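Can anyone check this?
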Amino acid sequence: MPNTVTVIKVLLTAVLCVFFQNATLAEDTAPIVGLREPGDVVEVERLITSAHRLPVQRRIEFVSKYLLGRKYHPETKARIKKQQKKPVEKVEAANPQPLPFKFLRTSMTYLDCMTYVEHVLAIAASAKPAYHEEFLCRLIDVMFDAGGQPLMNHNRNHFTSLWGDVNERKGYLTNVARNHPLAVGRELYLNRVGKNRTFYVEDRFLIAEKPQQMWYFPVSVILARKSPLVSGDVIAMVTDKEGLDVTHMGFYIEKKGKRLLRHASIKLNRIVDQDLGQYLRDGKHIKGLMLFRPLLQAAQPDLYRFQVIAAP
């Protein structure tokens, strides 16, 4: 008759076999995401290793500083210029089917204001130096609300207030301005201008089903140093344009007594540190700042497989 130790060993072996079989099955059935040939695998993995030992806020400061001087993404700059040339009146999108997301745009060389923040968060949140199964899956988790399904354009968190809600739900950050006594609330229909419900992002599946609630600290509160800013916070510049919540985002950094905005600047064509107070005073159309504090407590992200596709 087998003894207790033998039985336990047999049961443990069976459990491990089932676990690894399920893990292999999950990997084999994970959705495939297109990817340009990555040239920064070693750089990302080394950065994850260096950052992981640091406290959360210090981790954000460290990774965001590492990317200072990187260039603003030329594709984003070209898209913004193209949008500025379009007529004010636009036809509402009428695509009959959801629009697939063709490939994951990731680069440590070229970043815009939003992808800069997202890359920093994904690197800082990564638990191990594994480019594909950790960093890229974490980046997708920060950028999309896809639930492990194939990536679609309407799953991309295009608008910052919604992006903040999704990433707060996942555990990456918390919305500091929500219900704060010095914060202001605003309700709006994202992407809607007049009768056009797909004005900024042309995708019928991005028609807002309900108004979006957002909170922010007015510029006067920021300049008076009454807002609860902490170095490493994600900040976003609020607009009062119809259908639009935010026009820019970056990190709040304190350095030698100075209050800085660390961001990917389209004007300066690179990631820079600028005086936050002066930036807000010069930005006549900035109404205030949304404020998100990184927590980096999200669960393990959904698994995706990656396939290199040729550049056009």
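Reply from J.R.: I decoded it. The first strand starts at residue 32 and ends at 35.
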